[in-house]
Amino acid sequence: MDLKIEKDVPIPHTATSLLESMKVGDSVVCNLNECNRLRASAQNSDIKVMSRKLEDNSYRLWRVK
After folding, report:
1. Among 3, 21, 57, 64, which is least packed by CB within 10 angstroms?
2. DSSP element (H, E) containing 63
3. Taking the CB of residue 18, how many other CB atoms lie within 10 A of it?
């Protein structure tokens, strides 16, 4: 087995880490799939969010609690 050790590779952000880094009132613009993924992660983490569809068919998701 020939494996290479790599250093300083950042860990990818997850939906939950994004939501936890948001403060109440912060928002993100996302597409429908991302919005659904964020809402599911919020529900699993007891984080309250609200989303609205925008004119350009994207979505804005707010952390509300």
Report:
1. 3
2. strand 59-63
3. 19
